[in-house]
Amino acid sequence: DAGVTQSPTHLIKTRGQHVTLRCSPISGHKSVSWYQQVLGQGPQFIFQYYEKEERGRGNFPDRFSARQFPNYSSELNVNALLLGDSALYLCASSTDRVVGNTIYFGEGSWLTVV
Amino acid sequence: AQSVTQLDSQVPVFEEAPVELRCNYSSSVSVYLFWYVQYPNQGLQLLLKYLSGSTLVESINGFEAEFNKSQTSFHLRKPSVHISDTAEYFCAVSRSGQGGKLIFGQGTELSVKP
Lengths: 114, 114
Prior knowledge:
The structure holds two protein chains of two kinds. Chain A is built from no helices and eleven strands. Chain A is an all-beta fold. In chain A, the strands form two sheets. In chain A, strands 2, 4, 5, 6, 9, 10 and 11 form a seven-stranded mixed sheet that branches. Chain A has a four-stranded antiparallel sheet with strand order 1-3-8-7, with no helix packed on it. The model of chain A has no long low-confidence stretch (mean pLDDT 93). In chain B, strands 2, 5, 6, 10, 11 and 12 form a six-stranded mixed sheet that branches. A four-stranded antiparallel sheet of chain B has the order 3-9-8-7, with no helix packed on it. Chain B starts with a strand and ends with a strand. Chain B is built from no helices and twelve strands.
């Protein structure tokens, strides 16, 4: 079975631009979460979506938004990119919101803002 | 608020030596604890988790971690490391009602030398 898949794997954007990152969860998984991992740091929680509704939001500005589609895939959007948005963006999926269910991570999308 | 502290940013060790990666957490409520491993240019993989019950949990590749509530710690140990264990290790916590939201530590880079 396919794991969590993310696209694109690498991209370079200019300050002020907008970016859309995409995630397909493992088949049967209804919960998708997004994390930002800046070089040298641990991942930081951005959003969780379950059954197409936002269920949690981390301490990120409104420039960050996300949505989940009927097929449970998800998009993360970042507007007005800043140099500090350069990071690895990780998507994770699980069967539901219950703590303890294994959360599976994709390999991430590397975003470089220049 | 919850937080996770990984006390060592880098741990160099020789092959077949024992290793301990330290993790302390702070939380006013019961937490669930996880260790994830990240190999170069890859996403995160769950190594082991503590939800309840026995305070000693084991992974399939020889790692173990012990939950110590009084010391708010969840240190990761392996009696004999291999070159292939070289990776970044992240300790994370979550709590009831927040499935999908993990709070990660800064990570510990384990470097196993021949």
